[in-house]
Amino acid sequence: MVQIDIPAAFIASQFFLDIGRRAIKRETENSTDKYPAIYYRFLFRSVFFASFVIAPAGIYLLVGWPGWEQMYWTERVEKPLFHLYNAMLYPLFIMAIVLGAYIGHVVGYRWLVTGREKYLRPAYISVLAAVIILVLFNYPAFTLVGTYHQYHNDRGSMDMAWNNPHDFGKGWLIVMVYFALVFMYLFLRIRKEGRNH
Amino acid sequence: MMAIDVPVGLVAGQVIADAGRNMLKSGDVERYRSLRSTVILFAYLFTTPIVFYFFMGWPAWETNYLWEWVDHIHGTPKFAISSFGAVIMAILPAWIGFESGKYLIRKDKVGWLKVSYISLFILILIIVFVTKNATFNIAPTYKDYLSKSFSSFWSNPFFIYWLILTIYFWGGLIVFYIFIRRKDKCIENYKNH
Question: Are residues B44 and A82, on separate chains, in Cβ contact within 8 Å?
Answer without folding.
Answer: no
